[in-house]
């Protein structure tokens, strides 16, 4: 073990709450992601503790101190302290007794090194005591500085213990990895591909969406392809990865947001997926209705390409029928397509102007509703909907500018034309 310079815990917004926990559990340490992120100069948001005390001892100490406690995962040694309506997980130090490729059966230990040894990667195996001292048993700090994602211990064995670690490796590689994995790690990942079938598609998508929003997404996808992991997770990209990555790269180059649905749409579009193929993909991954609908909407034809002057009136009419985020996503993808296919024609200023129009112009609201037609003397029935649709079409064709009174006048003229 090496001890290194202390972290400035007192600068954390959660420091008063952390001190309350340390007051009753002085042997506890912050573990995992919070330590990693603080060392990396990133804001830490989730503060999890490890402690040598058993769950029953932890709950007693917290309750005696007047701190709320919830037994959130006693079989895994985890309880949650509740301070100022915020939860802080506290887990008893553990060692793995039996693993089945996805779950572990554990027993308690008082050894911090044993507990660190069961964690997936060295950068996640560090801990920090209440003095801010970092305890690093497996070289996590040097790996973090080098941008190296390394399994704790033997990579193949760690993957056999839990198949999810394959996808977690790529997620952390996308976020923190600037150094390619060594040959042994790549071979272990490739050999573990067959275990991915043990994971639920929901877990696979949960990891994929995080990979897709990482800062090194294209390099990570290429590494996933080289190890066979991508084909197991996204067979829709099989054989078309260069084209898919080309469009995703173009989306990133033009400054497209790192949003998982938009990046997924870019990959599928680059791969030449048909509407039927996209539908099959989102259904296979069991995406939420919102995510599935957004990806499919992004892949519909864009509202405009700025090869001509697009007026505010044009944009407002699109916003009357299309959600702002969908319209913007289509514009981002259209720009990426132009960069990938015809970079000589790309004019970033024109695309920025178009996006600004879609971002800044107000969404028009059609001023009539069915009740207005009933109040105008039109009897209830299918004709109400038909007339409402005809008035709305006129309203859009006239630039969505007509107000309530003007629409009623058009409605009157429309009715009279049929008398």
From TrEMBL:
Query: What keywords is this UniProt entry annotated with?
Result: Magnesium, Metal-binding, Nucleotide-binding, Nucleotidyltransferase, RNA-binding, Transferase, tRNA processing
Cofactor(s) required, per the database record: Mg(2+)
Concerning Gene3D superfamilies, the annotation shows:
Beta Polymerase, domain 2, cca-adding enzyme, domain 2
Q: Which InterPro entries match?
A: Bact_CCA-adding_enz_type3_sf (IPR050264), NT_sf (IPR043519), PolA_pol_head_dom (IPR002646), PolyA_RNA-bd (IPR032828)
According to the entry, every stretch annotated as the Poly A polymerase head domain falls at 28-150
Per the database record, which ranges form the tRNA nucleotidyltransferase/poly(A) polymerase RNA and SrmB- binding domain?
Answer: 182-237
| GO terms of biological process kind | tRNA processing
Molecular function terms in GO for this entry? metal ion binding; nucleotide binding; nucleotidyltransferase activity; tRNA binding
Q: Where are the transmembrane segments?
A: none
Q: Which PANTHER family match?
A: CCA TRNA NUCLEOTIDYLTRANSFERASE 1, MITOCHONDRIAL
Which family is it part of?
Belongs to the tRNA nucleotidyltransferase/poly(A) polymerase family.
Q: What is this protein called?
A: Poly(A) polymerase
Give the species.
Answer: Acetobacter aceti
């Amino acid at each position: 073990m090496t001890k290194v310079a202390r972290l400035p815990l007192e600068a954390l917004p959660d420091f008063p709450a952390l001190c309350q926990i340390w007051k009753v559990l002085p042997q506890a340490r912050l573990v995992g992601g919070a330590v990693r992120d603080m060392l990396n100069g990133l804001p830490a948001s989730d503060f999890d503790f490890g402690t040598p005390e058993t769950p029953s001892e932890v709950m007693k100490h917290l309750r005696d101190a007047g701190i709320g406690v919830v037994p959130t995962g006693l079989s895994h040694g985890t309880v949650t302290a509740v301070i100022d309506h915020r939860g802080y997980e506290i887990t008893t130090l553990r060692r793995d007794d039996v693993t089945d490729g996805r779950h572990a059966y554990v027993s308690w230990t008082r050894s911090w090194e044993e507990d660190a040894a069961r964690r997936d990667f060295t950068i996640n195996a560090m801990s920090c005591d209440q003095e801010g001292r970092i305890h690093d048993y497996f070289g996590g700090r040097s790996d973090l500085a080098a941008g190296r994602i390394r399994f704790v211990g033997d990579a193949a064995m760690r993957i056999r213990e839990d198949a999810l670690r394959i996808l977690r490796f790529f997620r952390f590689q996308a976020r923190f990895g600037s150094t390619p994995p060594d040959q042994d790690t790549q071979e272990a990942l490739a050999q573990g591909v067959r275990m991915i079938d043990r994971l639920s598609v929901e877990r696979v998508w949960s990891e994929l969406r995080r990979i897709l929003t990482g800062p090194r997404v294209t390099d990570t996808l290429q590494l996933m392809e080289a190890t066979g992991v991508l084909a197991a997770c996204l067979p829709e990209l099989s054989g078309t990865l260069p084209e898919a990555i080309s469009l995703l790269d173009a989306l990133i180059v033009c400054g497209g947001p790192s949003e998982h649905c938009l990046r997924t749409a870019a990959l599928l579009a680059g791969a030449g997926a048909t509407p039927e193929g996209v539908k099959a993909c989102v259904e296979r991954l069991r995406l939420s209705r919102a995510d599935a609908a957004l990806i499919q909407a992004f892949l519909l034809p864009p509202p405009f390409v700025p090869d001509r002057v697009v007026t505010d009136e044009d944009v407002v009419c699109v916003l009357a029928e299309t959600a702002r985020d969908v319209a913007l996503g289509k514009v981002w993808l259209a720009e990426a397509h132009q960069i990938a296919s015809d970079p000589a024609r790309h004019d970033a200023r024109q695309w920025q102007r178009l996006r600004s129009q879609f971002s800044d112009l107000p969404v028009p609201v059609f001023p009539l509703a069915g009740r207005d037609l009933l109040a105008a003397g039109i009897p209830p029935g299918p004709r109400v909907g038909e007339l409402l649709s005809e008035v709305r079409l006129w309203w859009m064709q006239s630039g969505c500018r007509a107000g309530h009174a003007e629409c009623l006048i058009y409605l009157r003229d429309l009715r009279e034309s049929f008398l």
